[in-house]
Amino acid sequence: MAASSTSTRWYASLYVQVLIAVVAGIALGILTPKFAVTLKPLGDGFIKLVKMIIAPVIFCSVVGGIGGIGGVRKLGRVGLKALGYFLVVSTLALAIGLVVGNLLHPGTGLNADPATLDASAIAGYQGQAHQRTVTEFLLQIIPDTAVGAFTSGEILQVLLFSLLFGLALMLTGERARPVAHFIDAVGAVIFRVVGLIMRAAPIGAFGAMAYTVGKFGVTSLAHLGGLIACFYLTSFLFVAGVLGAIARWSGFSLWRLLRYLRAELLLVLGTASSEAALPPLIDKLERAGCARSVAGLVVPAGYSFNLDGTNIYMTMAALFIAQATNVPLTLGDQCLLLLVAAVSSKGAAGVSGSGFITLAATLAVVPAVPVAGMALILGIDRFMSECRALTNIIGNSVATLVIARWEGELDAAALRSALAGTAAASTDPVRR
């Protein structure tokens, strides 16, 4: 009884620890901004630790899950359903960003002259935002070597190799069973490593939040507060309205899901990186009743193809720049913007800082909106990236549960237990 009581003490919760760290980081950034900026390596170091383990987590989850998926046909069906879902929901997010931007006009009245803007401030982003053709994008998914898939940092490369390896393992049959058992054992160790890394999450969140507030200052929010408020409001409405309706239609409560994932969401808020929560997210969704084969496939794919927050940001930011520089956009221009954004948001999969970079790639193809106008929002992009990352991870969590339900691979009893807060795993960042 005493051990159980100790394990549930409030200060032992990862959620509480990260929350305290975020508040402390904000306070430090306000009180001593110069010192707070020097703490950036704490956040960067934690994110690097998480990125270090992402490839092994995806490999073990996908390969271990394919063994129980039941055949090649079912594997293809799960993939097609996931891609179909991603296409519909992410395009809806792009459209909602356009609609709200047209209704609220957050950039109207700024009257900025593109010729007077400091285009050199965004030159580095433009250099990374070269538009890839479909052929280049597909070739980029294929790693140069099998080992290269794990060292490149490209999630899609790891996913491709894992799918091929898992498929070969399944087709080999009985002879490959020792290999499957070995990978399953390695997976248990990898998730134990994830748990150890997550214990450093409060330190990473503290350093990242202190740097953000110390570097950019709370006052920087006031300059373009209208756009920030508009984006946060739109993202909230998308999560509550669209994702909430999808969740309700699928038989679970979105708000209970958010409560269950509160530690991961707070970690994303503190680090402004959805990648920081990828390994524990897969684990949490498995514990909530989602089959490993579905979680291991849909979550990594969603991180590349289902970026709802990034999509809302792209169309809304593009409209803001056009309104701020007094550039009128016709219906045709806006349709072109939506189509280009739908492609470029997928083409920039795996690119670090993809939100701002993908926006640069999109505007480079839509001549009506001046790329130099991105300098207007560069200073507040860090604050907007937190909302992008939060919306992205919520969207991928809902997508995974929905597709698992479609496939009959969702344990309803485990899901109810997890969302009700009665599952023991929901309080422990380390896999049992």
What does this structure look like?
With 432 residues, the chain is mostly helical. It has one domain (11-426): Sodium:dicarboxylate symporter (Proton glutamate symport protein, Orthogonal Bundle). The chain contains 22 helices and no strands. Helix 19 (331-347) packs across helix 20. The longest helix is centred in the N-terminal third of the chain and has 33 residues, at 72-104. Mean pLDDT is 81; it is low at 1-7, 347-352 and 424-432.
The radius of gyration computed from the alpha-carbon positions, rounded to a whole number of angstroms, is: 22 Å
CATH class wording: Mainly Alpha
N-to-C series of helices and strands: HHHHHHHHHHHHHHHHHHHHHH
What is the CATH-assigned architecture? Orthogonal Bundle
- Kindly, what is the distance between the CA atoms of the first and last residues, rounded to a whole number of angstroms? 18 Å
- The total of beta strands comes to 0
CATH superfamily, called what? Sodium:dicarboxylate symporter
Short recap of the structure:
This protein is 72% helix and 0% strand. It is an all-alpha fold and 432 residues long. Helix 2 (14-31) packs parallel to helix 15 and helix 4 (40-66) packs across helix 17 (292-305).
Describe the structure using short key phrases.
mainly alpha, Proton glutamate symport protein, 72% helix, 0% strand, disordered N terminus
